[in-house]
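Protein in question reproduced for absentees:

***
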Amino acid sequence: MSTPGKILLWGSNLWQFGAGMLGPLFAIFVEDIGGDILDVSWVYATYLIVTGMGIILVGKLADKIGDEWFMISGYGLSAIATFGYLFVTTTIDLLIIQVLQGVSLALMQPTWFALYDYFRGDGKNGGYIWGLATGMGYVASGVALIVGGFIADRFSFDALFVVMGTILTIATIYQATILKFTKPR
């Protein structure tokens, strides 16, 4: 695999680790701010809809403008939005953060896939290369959820969000190193 492909792979896995620390703990966090099952449902549904619609739009725009800055902006917005959880006290606050998270994923996901496909190597072992990207992400998220649960249980959700945001910031900085391998359009 090429050096830029490795950067994309490891940066993504670091992001998956940081983002994966919340996972199903999200429902407990919603409950902690006074929300209920319906709040979890409509807030998360909004996140999914914003993400899905945004991915389509960003994918189309990135084909014309370029992938790199969309991806890096998405990673950065994800880190900022994660720190935003520290200020959530109502489900409306949470909705705003989830919309930002949806926009961040919409910015990063189609552009990451395009860049990873472009830099994945010589075209051989495509199944393995894509298996690495997908499989390692699941492993990172699984380990992260255990760590995230421990942090939230032993310390607090605020501590969890600081750790998550810090990891996502590091992932953003690492992913930005891809710029030295790309050409402006």
About this structure: The chain has a mean pLDDT of 91. The chain has one domain: 3-175.
